[in-house]
Write a structure and sequence with these properties.
alpha/beta; Rossmann fold; NE0471 N-terminal domain-like; 8-stranded mixed beta sheet; 4-stranded antiparallel beta sheet; 12 helices; 18 strands; iron; metal ion binding
């Protein structure tokens, strides 16, 4: 395996002042898929999701929203959409989303009603989630907002592995316990290579409508401080506003019901900041299924997207350099050339490595010299999976693991010189 150091000369990257290339559609007809998440419940994440979607719409965008909290849907009530009324279907079997206040909406609440719980195991939750995103006749959308359940469980992993997310917005309150758990959720998305678009601090300050005195009920500025510590954007801080709750309970989100209110104006400011973050993002690779021998479905090689300060673990190009070599170009300009047999030997799946001890189970002598991929597929934003011609297909290689593998090989080569 060979490695190439980043070349930061002008001919290998865009001018720092030039706009980045525009990314591809995430799904047919959908420009951006944005998740809104939180580490814990009770921080107002669904309220933020709904009003953020409406604020994006006020900026001229076409927007849809998926209530991705399959077991605890709340979006229909916030938008005044009747529950328990299954959506119509197209002749091709795709769901037609409900529409309210100009938003296209899909939620489990539309199927079950208010008083009927969705009692589902993890795999079924994932199945419904995929159907709510990929099995819906969305039409043309600029943004599809996914309102996630709290935590770092099945739903978040399903999205990271199967949906081409543009990024995630993390919602927190200034309270110390909320910030700690929000940080944990943020780290989870970083681990699976989902871009963090920014942090929203909710319920920052309460202003008494009678005397005008402001009180920081849940403390002040914690979300902004966290964004500085973690090096991610701070999109804005929302006040603790009783009208937000009242409007949401009555199915009239505040951005629609009171567009000139302080809260509504903050939502529009947050939406504009979010759009700016998306425009600043560098082009990423489209999802792919790559037939190795024929090179059919090969991903792009975006050399113009190299940036000196680019991400170390974000690939902007994959290439079949020859039948035995997979080349990866990273956003910071570094290039690794992997012998495909080395990748087969480095598999970390449960068949090749003992999960608890880390002991290698794969005997290199059992891997034939001419082993090669039949196909390589993208896994979310964070990994690639291999289907090998020796029948092995259960392992994935995360981009962080691949970058580390390249660095170890480079160090070994230097030591042998």
């Amino acid at each position: 395996m060979q490695t190439t150091e980043p070349d930061h000369s002008p001919q290998h990257g865009p001018d720092a002042l030039s706009p980045p290339p525009v990314g591809p559609e995430k799904l047919p007809g959908i420009r951006h898929i944005i998740a809104v998440g939180s580490g814990k419940g009770g921080v107002g994440k669904s309220t933020v999701s709904v009003n953020l979607a409406l604020a994006l719409q006020q900026l001229g965008a076409s927007v849809g929203i998926v209530d991705a909290d399959i077991l605890g849907p709340s979006i229909p009530g916030m938008l005044g959409i009747p529950t328990g009324e299954p959506p119509a279907m197209t002749p091709q079997g795709r769901m037609i989303p409900a529409q309210k206040h100009g938003l296209k909406v899909v939620s489990m609440g539309m199927l079950t009603g208010d008083d009927k719980p969705a009692v589902l195991r993890g795999p079924m939750v994932g199945k419904y989630l995929k159907m709510f995103v990929g099995g819906v006749q969305w039409g043309l959308l600029d943004y599809l907002i996914l309102d996630l359940p709290p935590g770092t469980g099945d739903t978040q992993l399903t999205l990271a592995q199967s949906m081409p997310l543009s990024g995630v917005v993390i919602v927190t309150t200034p309270q110390a316990v909320s910030l700690k758990i929000a940080r944990r959720g943020l780290r989870m998305f970083e681990k699976v290579q989902v871009p963090i678009l920014g942090i929203v601090e909710n319920m920052r300050t309460f202003t008494c409508p009678h005397c005008g005195e402001s009180t920081d009920i849940f403390r002040h500025g914690g979300g902004e401080q966290m964004s500085q510590e973690l090096g991610v954007a701070f999109l804005g801080a929302l006040p603790l506003d009783a009208d937000v709750v009242t409007c949401g309970d009555e199915g009239r989100p505040i951005v629609v019901d009171q567009p000139t209110s302080v809260s509504s104006q903050v939502y529009v400011t947050i939406a504009a900041a979010l759009v700016a973050q998306l425009h600043a993002a560098v082009a990423t690779l489209k999802p792919f299924v790559w037939k190795w021998d024929s090179n059919q479905g090969a991903p792009a090689w975006l050399e113009d997207a190299v940036r000196p300060a680019g991400a170390r673990n974000t690939p902007i190009g994959l290439l079949r350099r020859d039948p035995r070599t997979l080349s990866i170009l990273w956003e910071d300009g570094h290039r690794d050339d992997f012998d495909v047999r080395d990748l087969r030997l480095s598999c970390h799946c449960a068949l090749c490595v003992e999960e608890m001890s880390g002991r290698k189970l794969l005997d290199p002598k059992t891997v034939r010299p001419d082993v090669s991929p039949r196909q390589i597929v993208s896994v979310g934003n964070y990994a690639i999976g291999f289907d090998w011609n020796d029948g092995h297909n259960s392992g994935i290689h995360s981009f962080s693991d691949l970058r580390a593998l390249g660095e170890r090989a480079m160090t070994k080569n230097v030591e042998n010189v």
